[in-house]
Amino acid sequence: MGYRSLDPSSAIEYVKSNNLFPQEAKLTAGEVGDGNLNLVFQIRDEQNGKSVIIKQALPYVRCVGESWPLDLNRTILEANAFEIQNTLAPGLVPKLYHKDEELALVVMEDLSHLGVMRPGTLQMRKYPKFADHISTFMANTLFYTSDLYMDPFEKKALVKKFINPELCKITEDLICSDPYYDCERNIINPALRPYLEQVFWKKPALRLEATKYKYHFLTEAQSLVHGDLHTGSVFADEEQTKVFDPEFAYVGPAAFDPGLLIGNILINYISWSGKDRPVEAIQDYRQYLIDTINDLYTLFHQKFVANWDADATEVMATVSGYQEFYMRKMFVDTLAFAAMVMIRRVHGLAHNIDVDEIEDLERRRDVQIAILEMAEEIMMSRESFATIYDVTAFVKQRIF
């Protein structure tokens, strides 16, 4: 039959025809996705409450339209990433039930009872186990897919399996290039444009540093990265954490995942300056965010090193001083990627609701400038920070 995009009715027919539900099941379906690329349906059995998620790739960028075509294979690549992540970080990603290459879709565990983290953070919700869980996810998936552990032939086969040029190109453009000049794809708050034209786009030193990290992204096949790790790609509650949406997965710089995550948390941290909440509530939540950043990176570092000490197989891993060099580079690169995603989410193609929910455009501009200035300072001073605690102390000194 070939590829066709599903709708709620055909999604129900699909799960029944593939024996994911009994033929007599009374099913309902609704589109629940709000992403930029895909169709997402929730299928529910009204009799027993069982539900699954169908995620189907569209042959174009959904938030742009058919003028930006995309390869449909990305959903199968995502399924392949889930399989590896389920092995390396069991319990921290959704269960995968079915994949269909022809229709470019996967059927997976429905985790909507947990809720996506980003909307929770907009309501100042706290996730006490998130730092522990996400640090395990990153330490395991990034170490055990690196040359430190993998057989060199298997590692190169992994690189080949996760060649993901179209979605990597989105990152290369939207994070590494577009925000540093007046690109037509950028979505710009009109109140912010004068600052961009008169100040931000006249920073050649900052653009040079971003360009260096674009080169890292293009060339550094270090680990299988999630590729889009932020609070919008995590389901969580007070007890559980589940990472989803790894369609940007490829073998790239390991620091990209912790960098994107920390950068997105810092955006939320700064965004409260433009919102009408009691000062005490803002300070309390900001301290929670600071603690979360400190904990998740410290635990990630500790767990990655523990994996190294227990399971490294590559001879270079035993060379005196190499572990310290590797982890120092990981930290500095994490800060660079954090800064770049902060910049990209201000005036690139896709923003964070953390800031865009500020309706007054001048108040939003002030928050956006604060994010850009913080990101620039982190990027340009990244080598001067010894630990993540130095970074968060710097952030807190500037804004609290």
From TrEMBL:
Report the protein's function. Catalyzes the phosphorylation of methylthioribose into methylthioribose-1-phosphate.
GO function terms (MF aspect): ATP binding; S-methyl-5-thioribose kinase activity
Native species = candidate division KSB3 bacterium
Q: Which InterPro entries match?
A: Aminoglycoside_PTrfase, Kinase-like_dom_sf, Methylthioribose_kinase
Which superkingdom? Bacteria
Binding site residues for substrate: 228, 344
Annotated membrane-spanning segments are none
Q: Does the keyword Protein transport apply?
A: no
The enzyme's first-digit EC class, named in words, is transferase
Q: Could you tell me the EC number(s) of this protein? A: 2.7.1.100
| GO annotation terms (biological process) | L-methionine salvage from methylthioadenosine
Q: Which UniProt keywords apply?
A: Amino-acid biosynthesis, ATP-binding, Kinase, Methionine biosynthesis, Nucleotide-binding, Transferase
The pathway that the record names for this protein is: Amino-acid biosynthesis; L-methionine biosynthesis via salvage pathway; S-methyl-5-thio-alpha-D-ribose 1-phosphate from S-methyl-5'-thioadenosine (hydrolase route): step 2/2
Q: Which family does it belong to?
A: Belongs to the methylthioribose kinase family.
Pfam families according to UniProt: APH (PF01636)
> Known NCBIfam families for this protein?
MTRK
Its taxonomic placement starts with: Bacteria, candidate division KSB3
Gene assigned in the entry: mtnK
HAMAP family per UniProt = Salvage_MtnK
Q: Reaction(s) catalyzed by this protein?
A: 5-(methylsulfanyl)-D-ribose + ATP = 5-(methylsulfanyl)-alpha-D-ribose 1-phosphate + ADP + H(+)
Chain positions recorded as ATP binding sites: 38, 55, 109-111, 245-247
This chain belongs to which protein, by name?
Methylthioribose kinase
Where's the Aminoglycoside phosphotransferase domain?
A: 210-269
Q: How does it assemble?
A: Homodimer.
Where is the secretion signal located? Answer: none
